[in-house]
Design a protein that fits this description.
The chain has helices spanning 18-25, 43-50, 62-71, 77-93, 102-105, 108-117, 120-133, 141-150, 181-198, 238-246, 253-262, 276-282, 294-317, 340-349, 380-384; strands spanning 33-36, 54-59, 162-163, 171-172, 205-209, 223-228, 318-329, 331-333, 336-338, 353-362, 387-395. β3 (162-163) and β4 (171-172) form a beta hairpin. Strands 5-2-1-6-7-11-10 form a seven-stranded mixed β-sheet, sandwiched between helices. Among the domains are: 77-198, no CATH class; 269-396, no CATH class. 41% of the residues lie in helices and 16% in strands. With 396 residues, the protein is of the alpha/beta class. It is globular, with a radius of gyration of 21 Å.
Length: 396
């Protein structure tokens, strides 16, 4: 079977390598239902669709859910471009006083956030597009939202006053911006339409906003295969960049902060300290991390409990005799090497998962979806995430 060439439609700071998903899924029997409980950019779900499987995906990040939905939507190129042009025409005719975006206009922190990160010209244009796109209920609603997001989640020269938004490291570099949102939106829609039209999705994929630690709506023993890549401990704060577009897609800063604080890999202590003994049993084989300050130790304990809940739900929904593959990256915290693979494997063993295969691959500094190397040839992220391990478990 030839490896499919699947082009992404939106930037994402730590995309799973497509070849991993393809390698794992190429021998899965047709008709299987495959779950990615932490969908991220949607690479796994897009691969599932390309190979003709039925897929189910979850993510706690609203922008990740939109990416996956858009990436697995069949598009009629001319119809979508016509829709985009219609939206722009209607936006240009709108009067500013007729626009009300309640999550912005009635929320001071969100309004202040937008005024800090965006120029006045872009705010006026984005308000018009946001007003129309967020009312859209048709088949192309998610594509229109992702097209708008692509104008903001950029490395540079986007609709905001920031740089490095696509690497989830936004920093303000301008006080004024000449970027034209309307023409940029048409180009963004055209780019998405071309990518999807060249390679239409084949399988049926259902993506939901939800938490991998609580897979609501997925029945016990109903999944044939699981493949996912949990967020790496302390590696990337996805919502730090994503919130710049999500504030235009109906979300307040308060809502996004709440999601950010509850995400797997969040740099905080366990929500319930009475579970620390469980976290200690999962991390007992880790070496050296107790030399870290208590804040970092508690962060590791929280990650261990997150992996425990992920494995609990994965074991519940997976059919007996079926496999689950996890792509896990190790980390470095203040010079201490943290083997996240050990945490994942110990959490899995709590429920009777058995390892069937384990292989390690080096993450190259030049990999396209990681931040660029610094002058010394090493990116900040590469010092945290040097390798990733592909681990497959079986539920006996």
């Amino acid at each position: 079977m030839d490896k499919p060439v699947i082009k992404p439609i939106h930037p994402f700071p730590a995309r799973m390598a497509p070849e991993i998903a393809f390698h794992v899924l190429k021998d899965i029997k047709k008709g299987s239902t495959i779950l990615d409980p932490m969908a991220g950019s949607g690479t796994v779900l897009r691969t599932i669709s390309e190979l003709g499987f039925t897929g189910i995906g979850f993510d706690i990040d609203p922008l990740a859910v939109l990416m996956s939905k858009a990436w697995t939507t069949k598009v009629y190129q001319k119809n979508f471009i016509r829709k985009a042009e219609q939206v722009v025409r209607e936006a240009q005719e709108l009067q500013a006083k007729s626009i009300r975006l309640s999550w912005i206009d009635e929320d001071k922190p969100t309004k202040e956030f937008i005024n800090f990160w965006f120029g006045q010209k872009q705010i006026r244009q984005l308000r018009k597009l946001s007003y129309l796109i967020n009312k859209e209920k048709g088949v192309y609603a998610c594509l229109l939202k992702i097209a708008l997001s692509r104008l903001i989640i950029t490395k540079k020269n986007g609709a905001s006053l920031a740089a490095d938004v696509s690497h989830s490291r936004p920093h303000k570099v301008m006080n004024k911006n000449n970027f034209d949102v309307m023409s940029g939106f048409i180009l963004s829609c055209s780019r998405i339409a071309k990518i999807l039209a060249e390679k239409q999705p084949k399988g049926k994929v259902n993506i939901k906003l939800g938490d991998a630690r609580r897979l609501t709506g997925v029945r016990d023993n109903s999944i044939d295969f699981i493949i996912t890549s949990p967020p790496y401990l302390n590696a990337l704060d996805y919502l730090r960049g994503h919130k710049l577009s999500l504030v235009w897609l109906g979300h307040t800063i308060g809502q996004l902060s709440s999601i950010r604080g509850d995400s797997v890999g969040a740099e905080k202590a366990p929500d319930s300290m009475d579970k620390v003994d469980l976290a200690k049993s999962i991390t007992k084989k880790l070496q050296g991390f107790h030399r870290l300050p208590s804040k970092e130790v508690n962060m590791i304990y929280r990650y261990a409990l997150d992996m425990y809940d992920l494995m609990k739900e994965s074991f519940r929904v997976l059919k007996k005799g079926s496999n689950a593959t996890f792509v896990v990256g190790n980390s470095s915290i203040k010079g201490i090497h943290i083997k996240n693979t050990t945490i994942v494997m110990e959490a899995a063993r709590k429920f009777g998962f058995q390892v069937t295969s384990r292989r390690q691959r080096v993450i190259p500094d030049s990999r396209r979806y990681l931040p660029p190397p610094n002058k010394a040839g090493k990116s900040i992220l590469s010092r945290r995430m040097r390798t990733e391990t592909v681990i497959t478990f079986i539920k006996n």
